[in-house]
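Work Package 4 report. The design task specified in the project plan requires that, given a folded chain encoded as structure tokens, an amino acid be chosen for each position. We show below one input record used in the internal validation round.
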């Protein structure tokens, strides 16, 4: 009769050992691949890139035979500092930031043709940014680069989109963060701005003086015209009325033999003459 008590622990240990061994094989060979959010999987069989692109999720694969390279399809941001020259041969240092991402449905072609993210940046984006920026700034003077910054940004944006689309890379946006010129040019720009401000101030002062002089001329003309009209409207009746309005109720006095007596003369011209004497 067999000893079932002895055989049962042996079977248990054997099954446990097989389970651990299988788990070890699963960990080592991984017959599945997990593609995380914001990624796509490039399938390779014996190192050859396949047409299939894996979406987010878990996917069964054949160990050893098949491998999966994962690439991010999220928007990436990279900054570059480029050196260029303007149309008038001024040296310019430009800091530019670019937002970009890979075409999700073409990650297999991108990986096959270019490589991973770092190879994309160093092999495609960096030289593209440098060349496009140099070509754009060479069309404008240093002053135009400052005053027509929006126009320059649009030109660089369109050129980069067209250039990188050939590699299935999509440019979302660029930002011209900063421009730096040589110290000599910066000093010249500052001097020019000061001179322009002084010229505008002098122009304002001349204009103000001209306006004030014209205002004085207009006032003098107005007074002369008023006096002319007054002379035209001056009549004996008006003079008599003005004399009566200004009379203070006292008659002029004359000295005679019997002392001072009032001189009564209601002639308008006389009244006006007496009023003028006062």
């Amino acid at each position: 009769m067999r000893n079932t008590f002895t055989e049962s622990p042996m079977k248990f240990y054997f099954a446990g050992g097989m389970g651990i061994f299988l788990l070890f094989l699963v960990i080592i060979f991984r017959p599945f691949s997990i593609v995380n959010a914001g990624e796509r999987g490039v399938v390779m069989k014996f190192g050859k890139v396949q047409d299939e692109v894996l979406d987010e999720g878990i996917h069964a694969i054949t160990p050893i035979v098949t491998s999966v390279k994962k690439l991010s399809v999220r928007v990436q941001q990279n900054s570059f500092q480029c050196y260029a020259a303007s149309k008038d041969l001024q040296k310019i240092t430009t800091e530019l930031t670019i937002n970009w991402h890979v075409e999700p449905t073409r990650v297999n072609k991108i990986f096959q043709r270019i490589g991973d993210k770092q190879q994309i940046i160093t092999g495609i984006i960096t030289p593209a940014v440098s060349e496009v920026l140099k070509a754009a700034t060479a069309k404008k003077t240093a002053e135009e680069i400052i005053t027509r910054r929006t126009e320059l940004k649009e030109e660089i944006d369109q050129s980069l989109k067209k250039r990188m689309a050939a590699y299935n890379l999509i440019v979302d946006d660029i930002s011209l963060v900063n421009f730096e010129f040589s110290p000599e040019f910066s000093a010249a720009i500052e001097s020019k701005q000061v001179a322009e401000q002084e010229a505008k101030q002098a122009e304002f002062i001349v204009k103000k003086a001209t306006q004030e002089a014209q205002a004085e001329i207009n006032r003098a003309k107005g007074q002369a015209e008023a006096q002319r009209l007054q002379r035209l409207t001056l009549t004996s009746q008006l003079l008599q009325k003005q004399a009566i309005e200004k009379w203070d109720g006292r008659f002029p006095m004359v000295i005679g033999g019997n002392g001072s007596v009032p001189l009564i003369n209601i002639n308008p011209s006389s009244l006006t003459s007496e009023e003028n004497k006062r």
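The chain has three domains: 4-72, 76-187, 243-277. Validation will be extended to a larger panel in the next phase.
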